[in-house]
């Protein structure tokens, strides 16, 4: 009797190689894996949905263009390195304006409204919206180097070694920036309470 092998998820590198060899569905799978985390990170770093959407597309165009040359150990770290470099270029060209009150182009709702849970009761929704506003104000107030590490870890779900590789900094520096970010966030949220 033949024993069935467990269904093992295809690695990111294997999917990228498959795409480079002409399988477009492989790129669809990669995009599905990282769509939410990458877009959330970009949104947290830009504070603007339209800019985040443009950068998101630019990241994937760059991945597609350079798929055949990928040789890094971690696709996730490579993806965030591309995203971060594009974000740096974007900021050089344009002064950032992060505002939680910025209106979403699609349905004219402030960004902060998108961070609240849908379907919660009125009291819970108000409480969650208030907490979300407080947290996002605190995250926005972080120095950029701390906000970058914090959002890569929380929104992007990158490991600290992937963050260090992406930012081209020592692992201990990434850990230190996260610690500093958490300390500052606790202080900012306590002051606001």
Offer a quick outline of the entry.
With 193 residues, the chain is mainly α.
Account of the protein in words:
The chain has 193 residues and is mostly helical. The protein has one domain: Rna Polymerase Sigma Factor, Chain: A (Orthogonal Bundle). Helix content is 69%, strand content 0%. It contains nine helices and no strands. The chain is globular. It starts with 11 loop residues before the first helix and ends with a helix.
| Number of helices, where a helix is a run of at least 4 consecutive DSSP H or I residues | 9
CATH homologous superfamily (4th level) name:
RNA polymerase sigma factor, region 2, helix turn helix motif
- As residue ranges, the low-confidence spans are 1-7
Q: How would you sum up the major sheet? A: none
CATH class: Mainly Alpha
Q: How are helices and strands ordered from N to C?
A: HHHHHHHHH
Shape designation: globular
Distance between the termini: 65 Å
- Class from helix and strand fractions: mainly alpha
In which range does the helix fraction lie?
A: 55-70%
Number of domains: 1
Rg, nearest Å: 19 Å
CATH topology: Rna Polymerase Sigma Factor, Chain: A
Mean pLDDT: 81
CATH architecture: Orthogonal Bundle
State which percent range the strand residues make up: under 5%
Extended strand count:
0
Features:
mainly alpha; 193 residues; 9 helices; single chain; Rna Polymerase Sigma Factor, Chain: A; disordered N terminus
Secondary structure elements and pairings:
Blueprint: H1 12-20, H2 24-46, H3 49-66, H4 75-93, H5 111-114, H6 122-141, H7 144-154, H8 160-167, H9 171-192
Helix pairs in contact: 1-2, 2-3, 2-4, 3-4, 4-8, 6-9, 7-9, 8-9
């Amino acid at each position: 009797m033949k024993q069935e092998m467990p269904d093992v998820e295809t690695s990111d590198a294997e999917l990228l190689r498959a795409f480079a060899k002409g399988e477009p569905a492989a790129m669809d799978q990669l995009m599905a894996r990282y769509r939410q985390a990458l877009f959330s990170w970009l949104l947290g770093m830009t504070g603007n949905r339209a800019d985040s959407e443009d950068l998101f597309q630019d990241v994937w165009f760059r991945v597609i263009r350079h798929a055949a040359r990928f040789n890094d150990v971690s696709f996730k770290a490579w993806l965030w390195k591309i995203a971060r470099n594009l974000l740096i270029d974007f900021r050089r060209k344009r002064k950032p304006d992060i505002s939680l009150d910025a209106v979403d182009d699609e349905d004219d709702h402030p960004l902060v409204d998108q961070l609240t849970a849908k379907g919660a009761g009125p009291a819970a929704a108000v409480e969650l919206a208030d907490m979300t506003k407080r947290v996002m104000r605190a995250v926005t107030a972080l120095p950029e180097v701390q906000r970058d590490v914090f959002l890569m870890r929380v929104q992007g779900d990158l490991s600290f070694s992937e963050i260090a590789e992406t930012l081209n900094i020592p692992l201990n520096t990434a850990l230190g920036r996260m610690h500093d970010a958490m300390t500052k966030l606790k202080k900012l949220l306590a002051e606001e309470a």
